[in-house]
Design goal:
single chain; 618 residues; alpha+beta; Phosphorylase Kinase, domain 1; Agglutinin, subunit A; 5 domains; 7-stranded mixed beta sheet; 5-stranded antiparallel beta sheet; 8 helices; 48 strands; 37% strand; globular; carbohydrate binding; lectin; kinase
């Protein structure tokens, strides 16, 4: 019968139940053998307690670029996310990760990876150590109405509100979300230029256009989409007027604003998306990251109204359908299959731009049925006297994508938008640049020889590397006894960084954080030396290693080298129970949560008392 003395220490909490540290005991058949120090960890709900504080910033607290706030429901998270090539402070759907839109809290604020969001009772602000900048999102401005908390609500709204009276909201992200290209349910589009004047997009693909969505005051639920040239706001502009359906928005009389309705289904994930020349209402269809965004509504629905919706190098036919121009294919074929074309088209053969003879293999396709020439800020006239000179002028630049030679030479750089095909004269024509699928014969032969040589070198080098790794790993291969891995002392010393990260210390030894197999984080217990033998130690460890129960943390392995005795356990990320009960930095545990913790401990003890094959006294 095994005897244990329980202790609570170290960083040992897992998924809702506390870790009961393992205890000193004797083998049932050998009372003359020295005792062995072992650990059995009973889990508790520390993760739930930690989650209580993840949605809130109290006065004096901050989150860095690598940290987020998570709403209590776990649906939304707030942090510094990649957006338009920068980091922006935004909100996204937590479980969708890369598939989620980013609802920007404050547009046009770009951050580095050294950004921090901080909260004081009278101020919510960001600091960027790289840019040496500070931006105040909200301030009480000395009016005496200092806030107490900044909290991410289950609606996805990030608010600053009074602690004693949560209905008193001083600031909310829903008022400022209309500065990005996505709007979440509950947020506003208003005519007030201070709060949510418009929802804007600045495309991230070197597009020569900007796009805005604004309230049309002349009509109930009316809106206007405006497309203009990015660097010439006084230049050509395209406007499209529509009306939001009543099931999608709520119109506020007298304030010229609309609010995006919250989905009727609590599990529905929806948002409003503005892309170049088109606004769409999308709903997620799928499970987790596996799924797609389905379009429930869009305006305009036909490219005959706005050719911009065909994307870069996409053209609108007279039938109002988008298609890629010759030599191009859909950039995102799945989205084109679903009827969303704004991702545009990409060249089948990418252009080659080296230093010498790089452009002679690029070809052009003639588009001779365009309804007018593309309008672009990146189009310019060239002093060419022939079509060949105009072509050479285009080939001399990697950024040139098309040229036209009629009464003079004009070249276009970067991507082409707003292309329409005509089915009757007058026609306009341009030559669009393609990559090349063929190489010069001499260059091709040289590339083949070089490729074969590189393959041979790679095979020899790869074989040598595999052989060397095999020999090295064979000499270091870890032994396995039963369910446990046997580690050498050198392996655990390296895994713990020479035992530099101490998690805790008790009467039986110290616990250190370590990493094995390159990515698995573990807790390593370095037992105090005693006189028991290696055979007895291994026998005891094997007994404990066979214990498998959901409320107990697994023993992964051990080390018995000379007089050294170490145990390797699963690493518990949420800390010890006392850190949640007595620490000044943790919120108080509710009685319901305390009850659940006690129940978890009881289940672990019940297993040790009644279900375990080896009876264990603790």
């Amino acid at each position: 019968m095994h005897a244990f003395q329980p202790t609570f220490q170290g960083n040992m909490a897992k998924d809702g139940n506390f870790l009961l540290e393992m205890m000193k005991h004797r083998h049932p058949m050998s009372s003359n053998f020295p005792t062995i120090l072992l650990f059995i960890f009973i889990q508790f709900a520390a993760s739930l307690a930690a989650a209580d504080a993840k949605d809130t910033l109290l006065s004096g607290q901050c989150i860095s670029r690598s940290e987020t706030l998570i709403s209590k429901s776990g649906v939304f998270e707030l942090g510094f996310f990649a957006y338009d090539g920068w980091y922006n402070l935004g909100i996204r759907y937590k479980n969708l990760v890369e598939r989620s839109p980013v609802f920007v809290v404050q547009y046009a604020l770009d951050f580095s990876d050294r950004a921090t969001l901080c909260f004081l009772k009278d101020k919510l602000y960001t600091i960027d150590d790289y840019y040496l900048s500070e931006y105040v999102l909200w301030s009480s401005e000395g009016n005496g109405s200092a806030a107490s908390v900044a909290i991410l609500l289950d609606t996805g709204n990030f608010v600053v509100r009074d602690e004693m009276n949560p209905s008193v909201v001083m600031w909310q992200s829903f008022d400022y979300q209309g500065r990005g290209d996505a709007l979440q349910p509950g947020a506003w589009i208003a005519s007030d230029t201070v709060t949510g004047a418009s929802i804007m997009t600045n495309t991230n693909d070197f597009s020569p256009y900007y796009c805005t969505l604004q309230i049309d005051k002349r009509r109930k639920r009316g809106f206007a989409i405006n497309v203009g040239r990015s660097y010439d706001f006084g230049g050509a502009s395209y406007g499209y007027h529509g009306t939001f359906p009543d099931w999608m928005v709520t119109y506020k009389e007298g304030v010229d604003s609309v609010q995006l309705n919250v989905p009727k289904s609590p599990n529905a994930i929806e948002f409003l998306k503005l892309e170049l020349g088109q606004v769409s209402f999308l709903r997620w269809s799928g499970n987790g990251n596996f799924g797609t965004w389905q379009t429930l509504w869009s305006f305009p629905s036909s490219c005959s109204i706005s050719p911009f919706i065909c994307g870069a190098f996409g053209a609108c036919t007279q039938a109002g359908k988008c298609r890629c121009i010759d030599g191009f294919k859909p950039t995102l074929a799945d989205e084109w299959d679903l009827g969303r074309f704004t991702s545009g088209c990409s060249s089948i053969h990418p252009m080659r731009c080296d230093a010498e003879n790089s452009f002679t293999t690029d070809t052009f396709v003639l588009l001779d049925n365009l309804q007018g020439l593309p309008v672009s800020e990146y189009a310019r006239d060239e002093p060419a006297t022939s079509s060949e000179e105009c072509k050479s002028a285009c080939l001399s630049s990697c950024y040139c994508t098309a040229y036209s030679y009629n009464s003079g030479c004009k070249i276009w750089q970067l991507k082409l938008h707003n292309l329409s095909l005509a089915d009757s004269p007058p026609y306009s024509s341009i030559y669009v640049r393609l990559g090349s699928s063929r190489e010069k014969k001499g260059l091709r032969k040289l590339q083949i020889v070089a490729l074969v040589f590189c393959l041979l070198v790679a095979i020899v080098a790869g074989g040598s590397l595999v052989f060397w790794l095999y020999k090295r790993l064979s000499s270091r291969k870890m032994k396995v006894e039963g369910f446990l891995v046997v580690y050498s002392y050198a392996q655990l010393k390296k895994a713990t960084g020479n035992f530099s990260y101490k998690l805790g210390e008790g009467g039986f030894g110290s616990v250190f954080k370590g990493m094995i197999a390159g990515s698995t984080v573990v807790a390593v217990k370095n037992l105090k030396r005693s006189g028991y033998g290696e055979k007895q130690f291994r026998t005891e460890v094997q007994t404990i290693g066979m214990i498998q129960q959901t409320n107990l943390v697994r023993l992964l392995g051990f080390c018995a080298e000379g007089t050294r005795r170490l145990l390797v356990y699963e690493y518990m990320v949420n800390g010890s129970l006392d850190s949640h009960l007595f620490s000044d930095n943790s919120s108080a545990l509710s009685w319901n949560l305390r009850y659940r913790i006690a129940a978890g401990i009881a289940k672990g003890l019940a297993y040790l008392h009644e279900a375990c094959n080896d009876c264990i006294i603790h």
